[in-house]
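During the reporting period the student researcher (J.K.) took over the structure-prediction task from the postdoctoral fellow and processed the backlog of single-chain submissions. One of the processed entries is reproduced below for the supervisory committee.
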Amino acid sequence: MIKMTVNGRAVALDVDPSEPLLWALREDLQLTGTKFGCGMALCGACTVHLDGQPVRACSTPLSVAAGKKVTTIEGVGASRVGKATQAAWVKLDVPQCGYCQSGQIMSACALLASKKKPNDADIDAAMSGNLCRCGTYNQIRAAIHVAADSLNGKKVGA
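J.K. obtained the following structure tokens:
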């Protein structure tokens, strides 16, 4: 039995501890916002937070999450950083196809939780493991700046 907290809710799963966290979230807990992309931790579509740190759920065994806090795209909006980041994504209409965006937002939230005023180099480094086939990198960077401004009390224009 693997016990952990997912999006603030205690859960216990009776599954193989070597099962990837991604499949436990999607199949066992029906949290389908976290996407399967490459299955090799290369694209970032499956990014979730494990005790606040971004991890690739496709390559993280469920046993690693035992006793820890997991936050998915479904739960990140409960935090101030998540709320600001999601609002910036909507404001700037970042997604095109949208498939990678949950992973992008999770990585952006981890960055903004650790660095209040990231510059372009900080953003590029933090987001380098997240691929977007549609090429929305400029919009993603702009949204992260908007979210940072919002979090720092700077009024963001309409």
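The committee noted the following: Residues 54 and 71 are 9 Å apart (CA to CA).
J.K. will present the remaining backlog at the next meeting.
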